[in-house]
Amino acid sequence: MNTDTKILRPKWKGTLTDRERFNRQMHFKSVDRCFNREFGYWNENFIQWAMFRDNGIVDNEQADVALNFDRMLEIYPTRWLNPTFETKTVSETAGTRLIQNEEGLLAEVPADRHDTIPHFIASPIKEPGDWKRYKEEHLRRDDPARRVDPDRIADKNPKGRDYPLGVYCGSMIGKVRDILTVEGLAYHIYDYPEMVEDMVETCCVLTEDFLDQVLPLGDFDFASGWEDICYNRGPLVGLDFFKNVVVPRYRRITKKLRQHGIDIYYTDCDGDIRLIIPLLLESGINTMFPLEVNGSGNPMDILAKYEGQIRIMGGVDKMVMAQGPGPIRAYLEKLRPWVEKGGFIPHCDHRCPPNVTQEDYLYYLKVKEELFGM
Predict the structure, then answer these.
(1) Does residue 136 belong to any structural domain of this protein?
(2) How far, in Å, CA of 254 to CA of 273, rounded?
(3) What are the angstrom distances between the C-alpha of 224 and each of 62, 171, 188, 201, 294?
(4) Predicted local confidence at residue 2, as pLDDT
(5) pLDDT class for 3, splitting at 50, 70, 90?
């Protein structure tokens, strides 16, 4: 924890530790109050919001400390690609830069470097031979850099810790999409299905290798992952592919987690996830994050449809947060009965964007505490 960060808000009062609260809430048990967390902010917020800018708060980690959210930590692998590709500018115009990123993709980004999603235009993997070289050069299972330092686990897992600790389970298909691009993945599933499945398998075994090292060393409360395999109209891959190729790998991960007592498993997926929710639940992923409302609809409908099976972290419409006090309060009041049922930790349904003013955001935090912090 950064002890030099200025504290801007008092911590919500409570009688449970953050760890006790998280575990009870995610298992539908009674709590003193809701677990209080947020997902973070766009880079522009740290420049535009005076409370951040004037207090030297420049990133999400510092913001979490400053706003006194409940604490939760995770253990991550030391490497994804090793070595990474050189990050460099290939060419530049008045409005855009063409860059090569650390995964070897070519992408167009704004020349003024404002925070946005890059436009990926070319992957280094165009056919199975490319993947073979990429895997051998950057994704070796026997790479010494993939060994876990036990001291790193011990530092985050002290005796008597009062916060939930998670273990990161990577991505089974999102990173495949990243390195192929959305268009490349769409073609290669049909042109080179064995190659794509081997890419998914590689993601899985690297995660398994990491878990085999880490799980015996810690006392974990949850597992997390990342996919971003949906857009605002549904999945970016067919459901048959997801069920037959991706779900079996999730099940292998889930089996390891369950053997170590971890039964809360969430994955980060934007867009409309409704078609893959049954497959995620079937695979052992039982918590949806951050549940983008303008993709997946309101969280109350999903919680009602899968009541007792599903948990949500997120689900507060960022569009409403930009509309001012009245809509903010009305929206949060609708969530209140579902938060009280358990299994639902409400927060902004993605990084809070800069079109939300500081004043409206602080009002949101105030009402959130009023409704969920008792």
Answers:
(1) no
(2) 20
(3) 21, 9, 27, 18, 23
(4) 53
(5) low
Contact 352, 316 (CB under 8 A): no
For 262-315, give the DSSP string.
Answer: ---EEEE--S--TTTHHHHHHHT--EEES--HHHH--HHHHHHHTTTT-EEEEE
Helix or strand or coil: residue 69? Answer: coil
Count of the separate structural domains present in the chain: 1
Gap between the Cα atoms of 347 and 37, Å rounded: 7
Q: What domain range includes position 242?
A: 18-80+149-372
The yes-or-no verdict on residue 1 having pLDDT over 90 is: no
How many CB atoms within 10 Å of residue 116? 11
Residue type for 361, please? Y
The CA distance from 265 to 283, in Å, is 10
Residue 242 sits at the vertex; the CA angle it makes with 199 and 277, to the nearest 5 degrees, is 130
Contact 292, 270 (CB under 8 A): yes
Give the Cα-Cα-Cα angle 238, 200, 314 (nearest 5 degrees).
Answer: 70
Q: State the pLDDT at residue 95.
A: 87
Residues 6+ apart with CB under 8 A from 339: 34, 345, 346, 371, 372
Q: Estimate the share of the chain in helix, then strand, then coil, as percent rounded to the nearest 5.
A: 45, 15, 40
Residue 204 has pLDDT above 70, yes or no: yes
Per-residue model confidence as pLDDT tens digits over 239-262: 999 999 999 999 999 999 999 999
Evaluate whether residue 180 is within a structural domain.
Answer: yes
CA atoms of 15 and 21, how far apart (whole Å): 9
Residue with tokens 């919001």: 49
Domain CATH code at residue 216: 3.20.20.210
